[in-house]
Specification:
The chain is of the alpha+beta class and 196 residues long. 24% of the residues lie in helices and 27% in strands. It has a single domain, classed as 3-Layer(aba) Sandwich (Aminopeptidase), CATH 3.40.630.30.
Amino acid sequence: MAAVLDSVRAFFAPSIFTIDAENPSDVVARENLLDRAMGPNRRKKSSEKIRRGRVPAEGLALVARDGDAHLIGTVRLWNVEAGVSSEGTPITALLLGPLAVDSAYEGKGIGGALMRAAILEAKNRGHGAILLVGDAAYYERFGFFAEGARHLVMPGPFERSRFLALELVEGWLDGAAGMIVPTGRMLTSAPVRKAA
């Protein structure tokens, strides 16, 4: 992952931000940013049902930091099963989201940099496809299209035109059909210590 992040840093240097791996100290800032960017109903979305209680895919939780190392953007990818193939074999994929950038930094290329870094890192880690629910006009420039997800469904309400796919390996989603199901590692809570 260091090579990917170094290449992203080099591409944007000198810049107002850097792309880095998320770390445990980012949790509060990330959640506050997502609350501001996504609004109060963000936890009711179908994508959130897939993420709930899970840990992002290994090495695929990225953040953007300003010059003072404050978190100003975030993107995470999650392990999922993208239905099954025509032979009945489960198809692995990633679900991207949410992607958010602090409103004070919008229009500065941070969202695009996070997307490019996430896609490159997913490809380098051997993943075959990425799915997301989002604005087609924005995500098509990164290679996401509704066609690849046409036979897949989310667990709950979703807009078909906003359900998009990007194949990192050509033909990965050929014949994929069915429900998106989470497969990633479960979140484990810290042990609770009882008073003596």
